[in-house]
Specification:
Radius of gyration: 15 Å
Largest sheet: 3 strands, antiparallel
Distance between the termini: 36 Å
C-alpha cells in the first residue's frame, strides 16, 4: 500500500519465499508471476504463475494450512504437472 508503483494487469514480478537457519544455511525459491483480472471477482486481480518451482510438500506442516492454502497448493501442483507434461521439466 505504500509503494510508489501501482501494480496493473500484465506487470511481472517475483515471489521469493525463503528460510534461513542459524549455523545451518537456507534456501530460497523464486517464481515469476503476472497479474490478470480475477474472473470471479470483478475489480480484483489474480496472481498468475509464469514459472513453476517444484515444492517439496513433505516440508509443509499440513496441520497449519487452511483449506484455501491446501486448495491453492493442489491447483499449483496440477498447473505444474500440465506444464511439465507440455514443455518438460
Amino acid at each position: 500500500p505504500n509503494g510508489a508503483v501501482k501494480l496493473e494487469e500484465g506487470h511481472v514480478f517475483s515471489i521469493e519465499p525463503g528460510v534461513y537457519l542459524p549455523e545451518f544455511g537456507g534456501v530460497r525459491i523464486e517464481n515469476l508471476v503476472t497479474l490478470a483480472p480475477a474472473p470471479d471477482a470483478p475489480g480484483f486481480m489474480d496472481v498468475v504463475p509464469l514459472t513453476s518451482s517444484l515444492f517439496d510438500e513433505r516440508l509443509f506442516d499440513q496441520a497449519l494450512l487452511t483449506e484455501g492454502e491446501r486448495a491453492w497448493l493442489a491447483k499449483y501442483a496440477r498447473m505444474r504437472a500440465e506444464r511439465v507434461a507440455t514443455y518438460g521439466a
